[in-house]
Design goal:
The complex is a heterodimer of chains A (399) and B (415).
Chain A lengths: L5 H17 L18 H16 L20 H11 L7 H14 L2 H13 L4 E4 L15 E5 L2 E8 L10 E7 L9 E7 L6 E7 L5 E14 L3 E2 L5 H15 L10 H14 L1 E2 L2 E2 L4 H23 L16 H20 L17 H14 L4 H12 L7
Parallel strand pairs in A: 1-4
Antiparallel strand pairs in A: 2-3, 3-7, 4-5, 5-8, 6-7, 9-10
Chain B lengths: L26 H17 L2 H8 L3 H6 L8 H9 L18 H13 L6 H14 L2 H12 L3 E4 L14 E6 L2 E12 L6 E8 L11 E7 L5 E5 L9 E11 L4 E3 L2 H37 L1 E2 L2 E2 L4 H29 L5 H27 L10 H13 L4 H13 L10
Parallel strand pairs in B: 1-4, 2-4
Antiparallel strand pairs in B: 2-3, 3-7, 4-5, 5-8, 6-7, 9-10
The chains are: A alpha+beta (399), B alpha+beta (415).
């Protein structure tokens, strides 16, 4: 990864030029911070159209085989991701399809499954959601209660999934269900579940701490899925899910668009401090505020440089040490920033976004409350710390 | 080294090279680091270090005996060229990139090596930035194996004020130094000092030319080296007292001494950060090992999240510091304008990671961690010393905030 070959260099130039020339006009209504919070149809249409264009230009699916809707290159996608982040263009909406479903299907799927499903993940024409979490299966993910019962060439699904981002727009769901009650881990099977238009499936919005809707719950009542859409063997669901999570937890950085620009978020704090007052002075003159903002800048740069160092094996003691930190550090960085924004805004942080006097249109308190979505989702940060302690430091397992 | 004008603290804009993705850490740098690790693993295992520096608390703290160090091992290091690591090749040194030095110094920190290496590196950076023929001659001596240390700090320990309690007066054949320099590192292990002195014919508020950098041999007539009683057992520290110490013309190495130090500052901060990263990593691995073996309630204590999670948090802090360190080093090697800010970030992160890791290393070792017989205290003290040296985390952030947001304005308070 240290240097690009001629072909890759040319691709990088192309990506830069294309993004420069094809940057879309901003949508009429401000987009949420991540694709996982998209609830409005207008946002969906805007972003789906954008992902289609980015894919057609070859900046998504660059390293996937041509027969699955990709472009058959090697080492191009990382470059494209970097350029997408750098350009600050809109996010790619099909985050679950791109970062979780497609790589998992590529690793475990049949030829038919790959040809049927991967192209839609890449182009964004078919949106995916994730069905792993249940009311009783959060951090203890193997405690799945959703049942899959064999019925000829079909499976009948009954159960309840929660925190399903994009569920109301999704055509497909990656689903883990229980096929045996006798084995906790080996009793699980992985399905590629049709959601939209499936008679036994109900998608209902859940309301977040902020009063906004941001994700859904999905109810299965005798919902049918064909055995052709079972991914890998019956009883292998846990292993397949681990593949998915590897991509989820490692790939947040390459999601494109959404995250990444940490320096800009520190700059926003500086601007807030300059326009806020405390004790009769600009908050940007308050030594404690200054110390805190400098601290945020250090964490931001640290995350950026961790990403750089993770690709230099000689400077990493353990290959998973930095990649496994990424979810914890970036979610806590965002949380810390928003919380500091609330502090700096002082009395004005009490104002909801509909109040005309709310600074930055009420961004700080809302983004602070929303930040818990990231410290809880995709394996709570407590679970992440267990994983880091056990897999990297070699401490005894906490279960 | 005024702190209110960040522009003057940056070297003049030079055409900076593009930043290498791998921080410029190539096979040469890797070999140098691994060689250091191998040498120190063999020659300075923890048992030997303990015997050398921590045999008896009474002799160290009450009788104030000189802290121990292994001069034979240092001779080996000198033969390997370590004094000349940062000396340019044309002056007889090895001219290692900063990122290579960072890797090596991390190993030195990891072994808590008592030696004049870090003092010599820091003196080297200052002489390099002095850029005069006189300075170059002293750099050549360092490359030949002489060790040196900076004597640049006033009685208040103000790391970055252009200020000195040593005054230089002009004499017929050069200069004469009087006064004192404080917090001088490893003063009893070095051959000469690089001293910041205020020219007596200039006022404090005067320009860059108010401060001179002079070389003073450790054996100079009129120089008294008085040992400080310090906590850290892996180094010595001293106050230098100058009583009409004469400085010849080849010992006056810069007439813009404060400026040379400002330019050397990113490298100095990075070097201390590297030592901190090394000690912290040793503390992490040692405490993890203990948490895997020490049993309570029939389980290794590392099973419990009250132990596991703080160790994970310490790892995250250490990794942040290390990544920032390599970036700062890379900025120095590339001649980037951002080198000073990035070095401040590295020093802040490394100091804070060192503080947290030190805190947990004692606490998680429990009762035994509170005793002299447990090696944890050696690293605790070395880290504590380095956390403060050349400015702690809060100090770095205060100056970083000036770079990010400008100085605190003196506006009127309005309700």
């Amino acid at each position: 990864m240290t240097s690009l070959n001629a072909e890759q260099f040319e691709f990088q130039e192309f990506a830069r030029r294309w993004l420069d020339e094809n940057r879309p006009a901003p949508p009429e209504e401000r987009l949420p911070i991540t694709p996982l919070e998209i609830m409005k149809e207008s946002h969906r249409d805007y972003l789906q159209d954008w992902q289609g264009k980015v894919h057609a230009a070859g900046l998504v699916g660059a390293d996937y085989p041509v027969e699955y809707g990709g472009f058959g290159h090697e080492g191009f996608q990382g470059i494209a991701n970097q350029e997408l982040a750098r350009a600050g263009t809109p996010m790619l909406i099909n985050i679950v399809g791109l970062n979780m479903a497609a790589p998992t299907i590529l690793a475990h799927g049949t030829e038919e499954q790959k040809k049927l499903l991967i192209p839609g993940c890449l182009s964004g024409s078919e949106i995916w959601c994730q069905g792993f979490s249940e009311p009783g299966a959060g951090s203890d993910m193997a405690n799945q209660q959703t049942l899959a019962t064999a019925d000829g060439d079909n499976w009948i699904i009954n159960g309840h999934k929660v925190w399903t981002s994009l569920g109301h727009f999704a055509k497909w769901m990656i689903l883990i269900a229980r096929t045996s009650k006798h084995h906790k881990y080996d009793g699980l099977t992985y399905f590629l579940m049709p959601i939209a238009g499936n008679a036994g499936v109900t998608v209902r919005p859940l309301v977040k701490i902020t009063g906004e809707s941001g994700f859904n719950e999905v109810l299965f009542e005798d919902a049918v899925v064909s055995d052709d859409l079972r991914l890998d063997d019956v009883g292998k669901g846990w292993t397949v899910a681990m593949t998915t999570l590897t991509f989820e937890r490692g790939a947040a950085e390459s999601a494109g668009g959404g995250g990444g620009d940490f320096a800009r978020s520190v700059q926003k704090l500086v601007e807030l401090a300059r326009s806020s007052r405390r004790e009769g002075r600009s908050a940007s003159d308050d030594p404690l505020v200054r110390d805190a903002i400098a601290g945020r800048a250090i964490v931001a740069e640290g995350i950026r440089q961790n990403g750089r160092r993770a690709r230099v094996p000689a400077l990493c003691d353990h290959p998973m040490r930095l990649p496994l930190q990424q979810k914890v550090t970036s979610s806590e960085f965002s949380q810390g920033n928003s919380r500091l924004g609330v502090e700096i805004a002082g009395a004005h942080s009490t104002l909801y976004k509909l109040d005309p006097a709310a600074p930055d249109a009420g961004y700080w308190p809302l983004s602070y409350m929303n930040s818990y979505g990231h410290t809880i989702a995709a394996g709570t940060n407590e679970i992440q710390r267990n994983i880091l302690g056990e897999r990297v430091l070699g401490l005894p397992k906490s279960k | 080294m005024t702190e209110s004008t960040p522009k003057t603290t940056k070297p003049s804009k030079v055409a900076s090279e593009p930043m290498p993705k791998d921080f410029g850490f190539g096979p040469d740098e890797e070999m140098l680091r691994d060689l250091a690790k191998k040498l120190l693993d063999v020659e300075m295992p923890i048992e030997k270090m303990r015997r050398l520096v921590a045999l008896d608390p009474t002799s160290t703290y009450e009788q104030g005996e000189r802290p121990g160090w292994d001069e034979e091992l240092w001779k080996q290091c000198v033969e390997l060229g370590w004094t000349g690591l940062a000396v340019p090749e044309e002056l007889g040194g090895i001219g290692v990139k900063m990122v290579g030095i960072a890797g090596l110094v991390e190993e030195v920190g990891r072994h808590a090596l008592a030696s004049p290496l870090i003092a010599t590196l820091n003196a080297t950076y200052a002489l390099r930035e002095a850029g005069t023929g006189e300075a170059n001659a002293w750099l050549a001596r360092i490359a030949e194996g002489r060790a040196a240390s900076l004597a640049i700090t006033n009685q208040h320990g103000s790391w970055e004020q252009a200020s000195s309690d040593v005054v230089a007066s002009r004499t017929a054949d050069g200069l004469s130094l009087s006064g004192s320099a404080f917090f001088v590192q490893d003063a009893f292990k070095v051959d000469f000092f690089v001293v910041l002195a205020r020219a007596d014919d200039r006022s404090e508020a005067d320009s860059d030319e108010s401060y001179l950098l002079c070389v003073v041999p450790a054996s100079a007539a009129g120089l008294e080296i008085s040992q400080d009683h310090i906590h850290d057992l892996t180094r010595d520290q001293a106050t230098l007292r100058f009583d009409n110490v004469s400085v010849s013309s080849d010992e006056l190495v810069s007439s813009a001494g404060a400026l040379a130090l400002v330019r050397a500052w990113p490298a100095i901060l990075s070097t201390i950060s590297a030592d901190l990263c090394g000690t912290s990593e040793w503390q992490l691995q040692t405490t993890v090992e203990y948490a895997k073996t020490r049993k309570q309630f029939d389980r290794p204590i590392g099973f419990f999240q009250a132990v596991k999670h703080p160790l994970t948090n310490a790892m995250i802090e250490i990794d942040r510091a290390r990544s920032l360190l390599y970036h700062a080093a890379c900025c120095i090697d590339s001649g980037s304008d951002e080198a000073l800010d990035m070095a401040r970030m590295a020093k802040s992160a490394a100091s804070d990671a060192g503080r947290f890791m030190s805190d947990r290393s004692v606490q998680l070792h429990g009762g035994i961690g509170f005793t002299w017989e447990c090696d944890i205290h050696l690293y605790f003290k070395r880290s504590m010393h380095n956390q403060v040296l050349y400015g702690d985390g809060a100090h770095q952030r205060r100056l970083l905030a000036v770079a990010i947001m400008g100085p605190i304005s003196s506006s009127e308070v309005t309700p």
